[in-house]
Hints:
binds iron/sulfur cluster
Amino acid sequence: xxxxxxxxxxxxxxxxxxxxxRQDCKYLLSIDEKSFxxxxxxxxxxxxxxxxxxxSAIILGQIGVDVKPCPGGCKFCTFxxxxxxxxxxxxxxxxxEEKINSFCKDGDLYALYFMTMHEYDLGYFVNIxxxxxxxxxxxxxxxxxxxxxxLDAFKEMKKAGLxxxxxxxxxxxxxxxxxxxxxxxxxxxxxLDAGLKLYTCCEPIGPEHTVDELVENIFIGIxxxxxxxxxMRRVAVPGSPLAKYGQISELRLAHIVATVALCSVxxxxxxxxxxxxxxxxSYLAGANFITAESGANPRDNQGDTSKNRGMDMARCxxxxxxxxxxxxxRGDESKIPLDLDYLIKTDSMG
Length: 350
Ligand code: SF4
């Protein structure tokens, strides 16, 4: 069976390491995710990404360290100040330490993120990073998922031991959020200028987003020089104002992940491709990092997501194994064979 000449040409470029442009991205996103050609696209993305990395994947951990009605006001998020039912709270020192130890006890976590609301206390956050630095193995990096921040704030975080940040300029930023897209982009620049690595994502994708909107969003990260790129679908969290639009399927998400992977793989700093929330279709479409979550989570109306939507380390290892990855990489890029013995040893058989 033949595939369309345009797709053939784009995949040839991707195989040859030639950067894809916006037109290529638009073409890929316009393909029906239920078609044979989408299957070819997803298989090609997985094959190209895995061939660059010895068929290895990484596990990231995220801990939401505080919760409050958030002035970011994002209409898709469970913490937006105009619709949230959450009251202000913070993890205690003991809870934080227990969560860090639980993520790190087997020594195979690539990086640990600490997530705050849009406004956060820099001193408190820096203390968390310093404390975490004494608890995590040397092979686990520390990252931040915080609100818009200055160059000086990031320099301070870097001094405390931070390697990078997760930050996005969301689809509909400034329309469905109370935040300014310019501030979001400036924050990413500030992080890069402070010497931190940048991980971004095309998010939160809903059924109403057009191909052109997705293309523009995906290329923000590509043009800034990301280390990790990803795609995330918007979860129709009950009670959040955009829940009425529903959500895209995991198959459509996997198709978008494959497109993100092929469009970003030639960025010189690019290392890993992700998907939120984890699903097997996307790990067969180019994604190679998975996130375990604990504490607050914008996609969950449970205060501690590890009791609801969030996946733990064991389930993450099992999913990567089932999707055929041969290794888990630690934060120093060393590799651990991912086989049945390892799953048994880490109590990950489920
Ligand atoms: S997504 Fe982040 S910035 Fe927006 S309301 Fe939720 S916690 Fe606040």
